[in-house]
Design a protein that fits this description.
It is a multi-pass membrane protein. By secondary structure, the chain is mostly helical. Helices cover 76% and strands 1% of the residues.
């Protein structure tokens, strides 16, 4: 009988991995389960927001921080989380990430107040920052190159299925019970995480550390401080019309920008930076990440505030609203491979540009017609157009990022791009709350109730979301323009 402490095994072609061939399937299953937890959390929580507000008597700013606390620590620590696998061993760190994610999920489920839910979500974000990069890293390190592509393909396909099924399951749970049933969506992680941990601890050996370089904890702390101050500037104490006071925005916004400058200065001087700034000097890298930020800012804002609008404002059931997430999976999963091949021939610019234009048109449609309050005839088709546009974008955008750097920088480039997309979602949710509140008040909404409250009324709530949708349409159009003008056209040039 093979021991779980085996450290390496011969692979076809003379390659070696730390994981024996018979045990690799356990790695793959654990990675799929971990990814499922991350994907389900990202989509179901936005659907559960109205129930959380009712159960915890939370304001819009409170519920923004339920999201922001998670995205803040995830964004700030994800690069450190990826590097930790190289420093301490991928399998070991992956176990830590899953364990922390599960413990934090239980704390979220048991939180008696929104004030206790917010730090639990922040802890969960740290777990996700370790778990998310570890999912793909452990597959890459467990399988030899000749088998790695197939394993990653299985992982991606299974992740796409869980992305589609997760929100529907969560919506069904929320629709079946009372306001307190939002707690169950966090407890779903308990059996999933337990199985993943058992597989990794009992069936998978530990791998050796790749190096002993120190982790960039100072960079992570400065990034957390900067992003936290900027988010607090936009979601702090409410002033007139439910929008944060101008003095508050200026004070904490300036402090956040100062911390951001300190982060950039540190990263430029650090011996082992979490975000090597030299990569931004490479042609195409800065442009691809600018497109990532604007496009994922728009996506994050719509996916957070649209479910709130439909559930609280229109009174639509949670299980019906979860259908909004299906187009992303139904288009991105089958389109990624053929669109990726096409990008090799025509370049990423035309595909990203055209896809971003489709997304912009979809958001403009939502903004223009949200007052019709027609889910089946208007909202869902608009989201389908958005899903098609993202299907054109996702694979070429990854190719644009990875193709703009040298091979030895591919891991850092991928991590930076992932972190930027997460940061975009954080800033979007923080910034767009004020936009929605102002438009809500302008449409005659009761500011003592506020946007997104079940008693706020359908028309003012729709007006609040329309303002968000116009902003996201403009940002997606900007993404399209950046892609067409700054990214590569045609096949890559030979070295």
């Amino acid at each position: 009988m093979e021991s779980a402490m085996t450290t390496a095994t011969a692979a076809p072609g003379g390659q070696e991995t730390f994981c024996p061939k018979k045990r690799r399937r356990f790695v793959l299953i654990a990675a799929i389960l971990a990814s499922a937890m991350g994907f389900i959390d990202g989509s179901v929580v936005s659907v559960a927001v109205p129930a959380m507000r009712e159960s915890l008597n939370a304001s819009l700013a409170d519920i923004q921080w339920v999201n922001n606390a998670y995205m803040l620590t995830l964004s700030a620590f994800i690069l450190v989380g990826g590097a930790a696998g190289d420093r301490y061993g991928v399998a070991r760190v992956f176990v830590w990430g899953i364990g922390l994610f599960v413990v934090a999920s239980v704390l979220c489920a048991l939180a008696p107040t929104v004030e206790t839910l917010i730090p639990a979500r922040a802890l969960k974000g740290i777990g996700a920052a370790i778990m998310v990069p570890g999912s793909l890293a452990i597959i890459s390190k467990s399988y030899p190159k000749g088998e790695r592509g197939q394993a990653i393909g299985i992982w991606a396909a299974a992740s796409a299925v869980t992305t589609a099924i997760g929100p529907i399951l969560g919506g069904a749970i929320l629709s079946a019970g009372n306001a307190e049933f939002w707690r169950v969506i966090f407890l779903i992680n308990l059996p999933i995480g337990a199985i993943a941990l058992w597989l990794l601890i009992v069936k998978v050996p530990r791998d050796e550390a790749e190096h002993d370089d120190p982790l960039d904890w100072t960079g992570a702390a400065l990034a957390t401080l900067a992003l936290g101050l900027i988010a607090w500037a936009m979601t702090g104490p409410e002033g007139e019309n439910g929008v944060p006071d101008t003095g508050h925005i200026a004070t904490f916004g300036i402090a956040g920008l100062a911390a951001l400058v300190a982060f950039v200065v540190w990263e430029g001087r650090a011996k082992h930076p979490m975000m090597p700034l030299r990569l931004f000097a490479m042609p195409g890298f800065a442009s691809a990440n600018a497109v990532t930020f604007t496009l994922y800012f728009a996506l994050g804002a719509v996916l957070f505030y649209l479910p709130m609008t439909l559930i609280s404002g229109w009174g639509i059931s949670e299980v019906q609203v979860t259908l909004l997430f299906l187009p992303l999976t139904l288009f991105i999963a089958p389109m990624s491979a053929p669109i990726g091949k096409l990008a090799d021939k025509v370049g990423p610019a035309p595909l990203i540009g055209a896809g971003s234009a489709c997304v912009a048109l979809a958001y403009a449609s939502l903004a223009y017609g949200i007052g019709w309050q027609s889910f089946w005839a208007h909202v869902l088709p608009s989201m389908a157009l958005m899903g098609f546009g993202m299907g054109l974008v996702v694979s070429p955008l990854s190719a644009a990022v990875m193709g703009s750097v040298e091979d030895e920088d591919s891991g850092a480039a991928s991590g930076i791009n992932n972190a930027i997309s997460r940061m975009a979602g954080l800033v979007a949710v923080a910034a767009m709350g004020g936009v929605a509140a102002a438009a809500f008040a302008g449409a005659g909404g009761d500011v003592t109730i506020g946007f997104g409250d079940p008693d706020a009324g359908a028309d003012p709530t729709s007006a609040g979301f329309a303002a968000i949708a116009w902003v996201t349409a403009a940002l997606s159009a900007l993404s399209s323009a950046l892609a067409f003008t700054t990214l590569r056209w045609g096949p890559p040039q030979p070295d």
